[in-house]
Amino acid sequence: MAVLALGLxxxxxxxxxxxxxxxxxxxxxxxxxxxxxxxRLIVVxxxxxxxxxxxxxxxxxxxxxxxxxxxxxxxxxxxxxxxTPNVFFTEITEEGFKALPITGGDIIPDKLNPQVIADIxxxxxxxxxxxxxxxxxxxxxxxxxxxQDSDPQTGQQLDYRxxxxxxxxxxxxxxxxxxxxxxxxxxxxxxxxxxxxxSRVMEFFGIALLLTALAVYxxxxxxRLTMLPLACSLSSLVWQFxxxxxxxxxxxxxxILVPFLVFAIGVSHGVQQINFIVREIAxxxxxxxxxxxxxxxxxxxxxxALVTAFISFITLTLIPIPMIRELAIAASIGVGYKIVTxxxxxxxxxxxxxxxxEYAQRAIxxxxxHSRWLGGLxxxxxxxxxxxxxxxxxxxxAVAVWQSQGRHxxxxxxxxxxxxxxxxxxxDAADITARFDVGLDWLTVxxxxxxxxxxxxxxxxxxxxxxxxxxxxxxxxxxxxxTRSVADVLKGVNAGLNExxxxxxxxxxxxxxxxxxxxxxxxxxxxxxxxDCRAQGVNLYLGDHxxxxxKGVVAAVDQxxxxxxxxxxxxxxxxGNAGVQAATNEVLERSELxxxxxVYAAILLLVLLAYRDWRAMLACCLxxxxxxxLGYWFMKDLNIGLTVAxxxxxxxxxxxxxxxxxxxxxxxxxHLGAGMAISDAVERTLHETGVATVFTALTLSIGVATWSFxxxxxxxxxxxxxxxxxxxxxxxxxxxxxxxxxxxxxxFPRSAGAARMSSSIAH
Length: 763
Prior knowledge:
Strand order of the largest sheet: 2-5-1-6
Radius of gyration: 32 Å
Number of helices: 25
Distance between the termini: 35 Å
Largest sheet: 4 strands, antiparallel
Structural class: alpha+beta
Number of strands: 10
Strand content: 5-15%
Oligomer: single chain
């Protein structure tokens, strides 16, 4: 498996992020060839001094255009800049219309002079390219290109990390100098940068591993017992990576944390095993007896916890986003292997060790020292105190539900939310958005136009007026920087037919004239209309792709659709990267509640099957519910939106939280079955497993807290979120769970037969 694991590579794909069955994505796939898609690359040549209207900058722009044009994965027909032949301006001459490229065949790059540059500048203004291909302040010029997710000849998926390296080597490093800055944004660039930074996750994993090892050693003071849970968890991690390679999967940069989070689950279970073994050795048992007792004593709670985590991840496959499904499969494989390595292999390996009586005596002393402070915590077992703790838990739950209202789904940050705000990509995105009317974030609304009577789709003035009215209304929507549509192009053509009179920049009402204008403007309609005019797009250029921005724009489009109708014209959402993001956000929002309900249903069913007692179901799940809502509150306060990266983490946090609950409740059942009073049983349980639970939570929290310093924003957010969830689940498990168990036993005392059955099951 280690040999296979060495062949595992990072694998990112644009198609993997798309919820293919969503209506927006169906629209995108249907018209992605006729209209601009969503996998766009934007390269901007920015003059550090003055404007772009000087020979060195224009020559650099041409060089960048050629370099982008020949990059592997670029759809060459989609490349647009001032130096490409598909960017035209149209003028009226004595001989009629004259349509020429902005930089036509009569312009030689090596012989640019002030007059030639002035001509180019005039053509840019006449063609209406200020604000899109040229910035409003004329200090920057843009190169646009659409990327193909796979090579049409070989069928191989585009390697985004390799493509990102090409962008850096052949574009940025090659053309950037003291006079020109090269800025690059787009999905491919973002994924490439994320992949580069994600490769550093091993550094944080190494730090977390070292801190965990030191903490475990401090706890058990045995090098062998320290290495045992780490080795078992690492073994399952290697098996997991090898299995993924066998199945043909890669490791997505956005999901790279998940295997290491599964590793953390393994360490958590391993520490429980070590705690049990050390306790048995301290009680006078030899190592084999201690290992046997650990195996039998923790098999049920450990299996319940891991099966719950397994089912939790499996439910994620119901989300129709390929990347999340791959993540769910990878995580499920890892959790499945944990059942073998941490519940079977670890105690089996420990049984071959031997420890002196001196170590056993020291272990007894450390155990008493570690558990001394739990005497105060055990006061929750007294009935009066238990009622107070449960009341406080209910109040905290109510506040958490109230404060978590209004949580956002999707990105809450401009630029690439996965990267830090100060990352080069996000700085480039902010600069481009500030200088251009277009940028990385746009939403394309598709108008399906059917022929009407004798008029074909290209000759319907009412359809163009309808689209123009839509664009005008969208210009007033918060978050929309500008709009661009067929109507804008036709207005320019109509003004040109009337000596450039700005009053004539309008839609002609004459059907034959409109059809003629479509023919004249054909070269300018690339990306806005299909060849038969049956599909026409209106691009809404947004200031960012924050969830709140996209949701507001989509709501405005829906409102227009409901309030305005035109026979033979159908409005469909959506294309563009913002349209894709809107679809993903909607899928995540619809999926979150069912996912959590499935997880809780699995926990309830497993607890019922294991303990045959409804009290166990409530005692294990209610504290977990409080912790989950506290996590939502934490996400809202830290502006962490629900994304394809955070949803699996919340599911994982639920799985780890229930681990603590199962281990504590299983031991509680054992003592209740032995005839102990509920208060004594809780106190004994906290002395035996409370230390391990608190220690495990603190150890894992310290390890994942180091991720807060990651150069990737989503890793930093996950480090903060997991640290919080580990700690709050631990607090709920050692306070609210025993208090709630006491309250339940007080109100609904169990019979002697039920107590004996509980003891038998726990044993």
